[in-house]
Amino acid sequence: MLYSWLQPYYEQFLSSLQTGRVSSSIIIAGDEGLGGRRLALAMAKAYLCQDKQSTGPCNQCRSCLSFERLINKDLKVAYSSTVEEAKKDQDFTYDCSGLIVPPASGAVRSMRIDTMRKIPSFIYESAAGGVGKVVIIDGAEKMSVGAANAILKTFEEPLPGTMIIMLAKSLEQLLPTILSRASKIVLKDIDESEALEYLLNPANQKPPTIVRKDVDLQEQQKEEQQALEACEGLNTPIDDKRALIALALNSYAPLRAMNMLLSGDDIKALEIVQTLIASINNNNPYDVEVLAKLDTLLKEQQINLLRELVLEVLKYKAYVPVEKLPLVYYGNAQMLERLSADHLFEAYDMLSHIEDKTGQIGQRAPTSLMRCWLQAFRADLKATK
Ligand SMILES: [Zn+2]
Which fold has domain 264-384? Predict the structure, then answer.
């Protein structure tokens, strides 16, 4: 099933497929938490169907059925990869399961020149299903100039009956030469109400699973049950409060917000804000507790949390209603408005800097920042007393 918010893009694609006006080079741009990978997969399935219906793929032909196993001989996915993954040929593969359950972040992956060089020979092979060939490039923003050049000619002048879909976080991260010939689908942010509806529906509150038709059903149910039990975040019911905090901490991208809710990191994040406020109120000079709590999150999430908090405090200072600012509202952090805007802007710049240079800056950077920040806050608070 395609997420409701992706349906309009999908329907538009189906109608251009019907009239034979599908572009061969397509870029889908948007936060990965908006589900561009699923859209690309649905488009590939519709494109390769051997018995296309007016409503989309037939779901019965050999090509359609092969999508249930997430392997189709006319579709290959280019993934960004580590050196080891590329050595094992996991960088360009028939296996589409990475589009459903992307590999955990952490390892530094890049889109390799060698991976791009493998694409043309796949496209030139004749189509197994007789319809055409599709390549999905997942993480096009990770292409170096060399990698982009290696694919440029194929992307600009594809063979008839081929479709190349590039997935990227944003169009700005792609080279102009790549952008110029492609048709672009830019995934828009979705309404808060639609995102909430998705997050609060119990049917969606589970980790993404890969349904494999070749595995015993009972075995599969057992695996799903185990995956569900491993979600610490499900020990606390997901309500509006949790969902709103998770959305705010994930740029309102519902799939990333759901991941956070399943892990329970949204609860940790709120606790950090509450501990921060308590620490300032109690005039605790060492802030051991708040720093220790911050350390329970991954560095990337520490940065996200602090940045969202800074932004919300700035908005609160600018008279945005507090109900629109989940961290300030649920964390009772209104008192932070007494911090000077200069300090807040400085902190924001610093956080962006830590994020940009993430490979070069130590693991403890956000914690150190938090420590300096608390000192500055106290000085500000004293000055405004
Ligand atoms: Zn079909």
Answer: Zinc Finger, Delta Prime; domain 3 (1.20.272)
- Ligand 1 centre and the CA of 68: distance in Å? 12
Q: Are 190 and 252 in contact (CB under 8 A)?
A: yes
pLDDT in tens, 261-273: 999 999 999 999 9
What's the 104 CA to ligand 1 centre distance in angstroms? 32
Q: What separation in Å is there between the alpha carbon of 49 and the centre of ligand 1?
A: 4
pLDDT in tens, 214-232: 678 888 888 888 889 999 9
Tokens of 125: 């092979």
Q: How far is the CA of 299 from the centre of ligand 1 (A)?
A: 44
Q: Cα(73) to centroid of ligand 1, in Å?
A: 14
pTM greater than the 0.70 cutoff: yes
Give the chain's count of helices (H) and strands (E): 17, 6
Regions of the chain with pLDDT less than 70: 105-106, 212-214, 285-286, 358-363, 384-385
Ligand 1 centroid to residue 64 C-alpha, Å: 4
Each domain of the chain, given as residue ranges in start order, spans 4-188, 195-262, 264-384
299: three-class secondary structure by DSSP: helix
Instruction: Please report the pLDDT score of residue 305 as a whole number.
Output: 93
Instruction: Compute, in angstroms, the gap from residue 56 CA to the centroid of ligand 1.
Output: 8
Q: Which parts of 173-320 fold into alpha helices (H)?
A: 176-181, 192-200, 217-229, 240-248, 254-263, 265-281, 288-294, 299-317
Dist. CA 128 → ligand 1 center (Å): 14
Query: What is the CATH T-level fold of the domain 4-188, as seen in this structure?
Result: Rossmann fold (3.40.50)
Residue 92 alpha carbon to ligand 1 centre in Å: 24
Q: What is the pLDDT of residue 88?
A: 93
